[in-house]
Amino acid sequence: MSVIETIIDIPAEHEKNVCGQFDSYLKKIERTLHVTIVARDGAIKLIGPEAMIKRAKSVFNNLVELSKRGNAITEQNVDYALSLSFTESDHEILEIDKDIICRTVTGKPVKPKTVGQKQYVDTIRKKMIVFGVGPAGTGKTYLAMAMAISAFKNGEVNRIILTRPAIEAGEKLGFLPGDLQSKIDPYLRPLYDALYQIMGAESFLHNSEKGLIEVAPLAYMRGRTLDNAYIILDEAQNTTPAQMKMFLTRIGFGSKVIVTGDKTQKDLPSGAVSGLDMAMKVLHRIDDIGFCNLTSSDVVRHPLVQKIVQAYDDYEKKDAKNAQKDHPRRFKIEYETELPLPVDHEKIIHDIIPAALDYEECPYEAEVNVILTDNAAIQEINRDYRQIDAPTDVLSFPMVEFETESDFSHVEDAVEDFFNPETGELILGDIIITVEKVIEQAEKYGHSKERELAFLLAHSMLHLCGYDHMDEEERELMEQKQREILESKGYSR
Q: Are both 91 and 110 inside the same structural domain?
């Protein structure tokens, strides 16, 4: 590894801004990139491995350019320039800086500060409805407010409507002094703060009195049609599925909607389904709806906040992984016969159903009921539903009707028909298998009982996803898919 040295000239008027107080930024760059930095008379000498020198030069060039544009360099700027120096996107920090959304009442420009924030702003410009999801400090609400105020000032919309669910308020309103508005206001304070900072208190109050800017709890949206408005729903993780549907169906002509939320900060009762989670599952295929996922790398508060967010994120991922290991996904399984099946049927079910869903690229968590029974019971069901008075190995009862196999796009048009309102899961259907046939057919075809049960499950899952075998081509396609699903989980003959 060759060690080189190079010199970078920094204009004297930008030296203090780029280097930081007591050269704090230089020390951070040294520690991060493992280079030696010597600052003297407006010049910076860099000594270290060639690859790291290249990254250091990129960082300094970006910081100098930001300073020339009138930016006060912060530790967050340095951290972000350093992180980008390890990617092919190190130049993007300057492109991001060019995108000025609006200015605050004091003249300070409001603009995205990270690649994720830039993508979020661009998506807002392109789409009618945008979901901005991410941890605290990623600027999702503030940037949404800036975009709304900019559109309002430019005459693109006639009014701004800001709303958020007041979960805590719903529980404690009766114990708080004052009228309803005074009780609700504390839960809307973050929205007021952003409005005052960007628009100014006087301008906000003036437009608020005229009804052009409205800040209200989500419950106030019921029964309204909101035309020519910029609508922001904040803290959407605290909505129920019914509230989210109510809100989204208020949208009228000429309106733009931004929904923001943090999936890690839900205040809903334990076990309750978040309207934000369900909406992101149900609506993801609609063209004019955009989704932006901001991460800890987009946090623009104190650098310590970024570290806190990342630490929590790492812990929760690890915890979720362990929880999944200890409590695997449980599909509803009913064993309705006294005849024993000498295999671990629950393991096979938990293997095959998710594998089939993944294979068919089902975009939702799915609800599937599996019933293991005997020949007599399945014969009765076969007779009642198919008018065939004979036992069969497996019956599938799909809840979803498909025009095209595994095309789930239409389920989004009828949420009430296809989704469990308590869990948010797609109700895919029922599978009924006779234990006697599993044992009999395993012996007949010369393979294990595990493989036979896995085969019947894979076959049924394809039926639940809209496949059939009425002609030779369809039969061959199903056989191929069944084989690949089984092989993916190691169920061979």
A: no
